[in-house]
Fold Histidine--tRNA ligase.
Amino acid sequence: MAQITTPRPAQGTLELLPRQQVAFNRIADVVRRHFEAGGFLPLETPAFERTDVLLTKSGGETEKQVYFVQSTGGLANDREAVAAGDEVGLPDLALRFDLTVPMARFVAQHEGQLTFPFRRYQMQRVYRGERPQRGRFREFVQCDVDIIGKDTLSVRHDAEPPATMHAIFRELDFGPFTIHLNNRRLLRGFFRSVGITDEQQPLVLREVDKIDKRGVDWLREELTGERFGLAADVVDAVAGFVSTRTGSHAEALEVLAGLEGRDEELDAGVAELREVLEMLRHLGVPEGDYCVNLAIARGLDYYTGTVYETFLDEHPELGSVCSGGRYENLAGQYTRSSLPGVGMSIGLSRLFWQLMENGMVADEPSTVQVLVPLLDEALLPEALGLAAELRTAGLRVESVLEPAKLAKQFKHADRAGIRFVAVLGAQEVERGVVTVKDLQRGDQFEAERGDLAQALRVELAQPVAVRGD
Amino acid sequence: MAQITTPRPAQGTLELLPRQQVAFNRIADVVRRHFEAGGFLPLETPAFERTDVLLTKSGGETEKQVYFVQSTGGLANDREAVAAGDEVGLPDLALRFDLTVPMARFVAQHEGQLTFPFRRYQMQRVYRGERPQRGRFREFVQCDVDIIGKDTLSVRHDAEPPATMHAIFRELDFGPFTIHLNNRRLLRGFFRSVGITDEQQPLVLREVDKIDKRGVDWLREELTGERFGLAADVVDAVAGFVSTRTGSHAEALEVLAGLEGRDEELDAGVAELREVLEMLRHLGVPEGDYCVNLAIARGLDYYTGTVYETFLDEHPELGSVCSGGRYENLAGQYTRSSLPGVGMSIGLSRLFWQLMENGMVADEPSTVQVLVPLLDEALLPEALGLAAELRTAGLRVESVLEPAKLAKQFKHADRAGIRFVAVLGAQEVERGVVTVKDLQRGDQFEAERGDLAQALRVELAQPVAVRGD
């Protein structure tokens, strides 16, 4: 007998059963629809990039986690050279670790063929050679929107990614959520105004970034401690500043006004953030769903202006579910053109996994809406004809192709999560009708065969309580 | 100044500009919709698999083209060991080279959690370390449907993949096409009946598989030649057999009837193929769109019964655009359960590339349907409000955020492939209307602001001649 290899997927990947995948796809479809409504164009790039293109910036944590790709032949040559003691460089190809670097490469490459501002969305898998642990994935789906300007990009665009993300989280309905906004110029300017040097700023910013996790007291201790040695009153000013979260739109404007007049950079940041807030209001984002949070700094070095994080109000333990910001120069490593941009990103695999863990998403019913059972061998042509009619009318249909007891076929539909069973017995054929059992409502009805598709569509359009509720 | 790395993608990948990507996505959406209508469930698996799981079957051409994946740390350890002269095995992970092996692993792994027959579709990228050449890709999107039975699977299911694929190619409208059917049992039985041994059969089948490319004369020469040494009358029988292509459904049944009574295996194959043809008819597939083609053998060893290939009648040079077949045991390397199945596959990247090369697909208009220009700084709130209203009504909208000459904004819409420009000047605001310019039709109309979304939807639902036609 042939040897059996245990069937298991690569560690650190998220693979879903069909009805979980349906739930995942429903979310992904909402994301895609709003990305497109927001005026973003689809982009897909290959999973691997040339290593020299992918790793132009050196030293980042992410670059240390890159996955290299080698063909069978390439691997053999490489090993032969290593065994011979030759100097061997990195493999030619590597899997992307985010969607930003491939987009930067794409925009630089096709600059002359794109219209600017270039607005793209991208929903693809990215790869990180992380140590496997719960909720950390080596392959995960990321959903990004970005707007890239040629030479300049009005700060007004900074309101578009959060407006689009707002529409997404509102429709997904995981409970109340808030988009927290801040501005790196405002932050830097404020620090400068209290005497924190430009050299200290990135370090202090990094500590400030941890405040949501560790609290103000921890921050105060850290900053007065040996490493930073800041005066107590400076730390008090910083601590007061970074604990600022606004409520209403008016309060946000008031807080911003109160910061002005101390530093040029601070004022510039205030002006930008004010403009973004006004834009959000004009775009119809309810004021309860965004706030100014002066603690948001975002760890990544390349953000230069607006920064965002998004939290589910009732699930702060999930961390930010959608983040991003403004960057001054997207593709400096690939082109001399100046390409400022702004974007936000949802880590969809991680979010979905967290929602599953929290019981906040459930398996969906099957994509299949109708099962056409087979009661009797002689009825096969009729049953197939019915299935074909329903499919032509846009319904998703599974046919049973060998006769079996009806109870068994109902059980199959129930187990598979198929809502309707469209029974076509000899009597029904004679009378030109179909008996439909609705397993979700637990009732049944009869329809003229010609009216069936329409009747099912009407039923499907109405909300029903999910079984088990 | 920083060093510039030339921005280019990995060789042998298909990367599209936005309006090409829109065209690609339109096709992919049609494929997905019909896969779901056909009662197939979504499955997605990780791009990489454990090497021991992926490469259980050894020696295949495909396995020689596998791409191995190694993290930075894994690569370093590997090279250190090689340099030290240690025995080093293959890397732990490799990119999938098709969607069948990951599906087999998935089904074997989750056997107890799935309902059978398990019907899945999968539309994902696969990876092959091929030598780069025109139209051969190292990364390409494959679109598969398969139906997997537990222990048994009625041959009737063999009609479902081609019925679904038929619906897809009919809607895609690349011109007339024909699904060619054959059966491996019928082929083997026929060969046996003319005295070709079981050992010769796979070799003869492989030659037969080339007949569409090389012709009957070539086949006759090959089979009477040194390598096979078949008698002239046997070769004539084979040549006559493999040049059989049927026209109507009735002719197909007649041809099948004419083959019966010579060999048990042949009769079994005939009975299976007849059943599949009858099923296709009941499923409403027009008889002009399928045929029996006794030359179709499919190179792959694992097909055991029905086999299919699909050709665009007016573009035979494209080769088969959708192929597949029946296999007796999907996952023998992962489970002792018997899992017979049947499936078909579209190599979408390759097909799309061929269609582009042949001028059979064109860039689509932008996903963005409406541009809301900005005529005057003071009108920003109104313009943003209009954009938000249209988005809420389900339209895909780009807003201009800085005032510019209207002509420039029209030009932007035109270049980007955006059909409507919804102009809201001071006059329009006062009168509560919007002036819409339709760049596709080249006309304009005025609508009450509250009726605009509905008016645009009506316009979008109507077919328009594409510009340039």
